[in-house]
Amino acid sequence: MGQSSSAEQVSPEQREAESIAASIGALPNLQKAFSVLSDPQTHSIPLHSLQKYFGFSIEESTNEESTVPKEFPVLLSHLSSSIVDLFFLSEKGGISWVEFLKGYIKCSGRTVSSASLNNLLRLFGMISVKAGLPEKLQVVSDEDDSKISGFLLPVDVQMLLSMCWIMWWDSKKLKTSSSLGDSGLPDVTHLVLSAIDSCAEADKKLDLWENNNFDLDIQLPAAKIIMWALKTVPSLADCFGQFIHARLFYVAAHEEKLDQADLFSHDISAKEMSIGHLLNSGRAWAISLTLRGSLSDEISKACFPSAAEEVDDYLLYRSSLHGKGLNRFWSNVEGYNGPLLILISAHEANNDSRRWIIGVLIHQGLENHDTFYGTSGSLYSISPVFHVFTPSGKEKNFVYSHLHATVKYEAHPKPVGLAFGGSSGNERIFVDEDFAKVTVRHHACDKTYHHGPLYPDQGFLPVEASVIDVEVLGLGGKRARDIQSSYKKREELFTEQRRKVDLKTFGNWEDSPEKMMMDMISDPNAVRREDR
Questions:
Q1: Which alpha helices (DSSP H) does 38-153 contain, by range?
Q2: How far apart are CA 521 and CA 460, in angstroms?
Q3: pLDDT of 421 over the 90 cut
């Protein structure tokens, strides 16, 4: 079981490893997993046994239109052996209890994000060499926190991201007891273009509108890729750690030899799933990699086929379905007190071919205000290039949502529409009342969100674009949707009550002011006695 019978037999190295594993709550399950995987005679795990439980079969794509590189299935076939060789040191053909603990801590323990990304690139480099691809990454030293030098090509970044997706998907599948279907490989073009845009040398920049071919000789330095990942997709390296954690904990929960033929398989030719018209699994996954906690979990549910059966639980509004305009929008989102993801698809007025998608994540429901409000949020450039713009901390003009005033007269009415960032009259993003136009301004006007272009080649001047579609997804879970349903039922009840007229509340017609006015109009010269 990985435990010594006497405290004197425990080495300082083992005590330290067990202490770290216990601090993250993993020690009991690791003991169970070691008991299942180890050989009772040698008290160690055979290499082939651990490799077996880190591997899975890949069903290759037969679709001629598939964008999956032909080397990708070969690459994945070496994943399990590379994990064991790189992180789990063996002694005499087996892995001891201490090395098993240390290997888990290297992969899934608490560490800084840069170290996790270095481990991920080390793993990808070893897999690539075993698959017969040219060696592009070099390890500077043999230390656990060693730096990586070298470069990756765009097609390598595509395969790295696809590998991370499969490991992430696998961990989610095991966590949900295998109730999820296969979702195929998502389109990661927006992430690859983001890496190229951020890491390529100035003279190697691509036309991000036209060029989606990744078979290009553009060298992206490893150090810049790590910096890009830390800024854009900080949770990317967690995909590997979650994969190791989920596999070992699944073994611990099933203390018998497992038949993983179906459980550990992945069909890379399956069709990419979508929860909305604008949010497919690749875009949802990219957004989830910028977040942590419950928000990341809620968005990631859009990446699975089962989520398609629960669209009504997430999709609050879609302009192509519910109709364009602020009033239609408001009738669907009012009363939802939870985080919201708003997606806007548009194109420049004179260039229909250049379509882009931007997004806004706000951490609270919308309110009818004539000033900016909000507690936190993020802006996203989603397509064709993915970037995230988190709060800068300088201002809190996160969101502006204002309908027509219904009570008081305003000499200088505030603009009606939706806005995000910037200031009144100088918003970074402003959607008009009819949802026909969206105005995007340069980031210089905005102190709420970090700087950066919301779409490729964005200039300094404001751009007015034509809105194609708007989608809103609620990320507050079932409780937020139930509260909104109760709110809508209450509003419907109030509306119905206001429609009913109780005649008993009115006085006699003969004594009413209305009758007196009618009499005066019919015969204004008639002599009437004034009641005293």
A1: 47-53, 72-77, 79-87, 97-108, 113-130
A2: 64
A3: yes
Q: What is the mean pLDDT of residues 494-516?
A: 67
**Who has greater pLDDT, 474 or 4?**
474
Give the H/E segment covering residue 49. helix 47-53
pLDDT for 6 beyond 50: no
Q: What is the pLDDT of residue 307?
A: 45
Q: CB 156: neighbour CB atoms within 10 A?
A: 24
Please give the backbone phi and psi of residue 483, each rounded to the nearest 5 degrees, phi first: -65, -40
* Phi (first) and psi of residue 159, to 5 degrees: -70, -35
Q: What is the mean pLDDT of residues 129-137?
A: 91
- Predicted local distance difference test score (pLDDT) of residue 128: 93
In the prediction, which pLDDT does 325 show? 92
Q: Degrees (nearest 5) of the Cα angle 165, 285, 185?
A: 40
**In this structure, what token pair is assigned to residue 59?**
């069903």
Q: What is the dihedral of CA 41, 47, 52, 56, to 10 degrees?
A: 170
d(CA 196, CA 114): 19
Task: Let me know: does 290 contact 113? Beta carbons within 8 Å.
Answer: no
The stretch 324-332 carries a mean pLDDT of 92
At residue 506, the pLDDT reads 56
For residue 498, count CB atoms less than 10 angstroms from its CB and return exposed for 0-12, middle for 13-18, buried for 19 or more: exposed
Residue 526 has pLDDT above 50, yes or no: yes
Q: Is the distance from CB of 240 to CB of 83 less than 8 angstroms?
A: no
- Cα distance between residue 147 and residue 19, in whole Å: 27
Number of Cβ within 10 Å of residue 68's Cβ equals 17
Strand runs labelled E in 411-521? 417-423, 426-432, 437-440, 463-474
Q: Are 431 and 467 in contact (CB under 8 A)?
A: yes
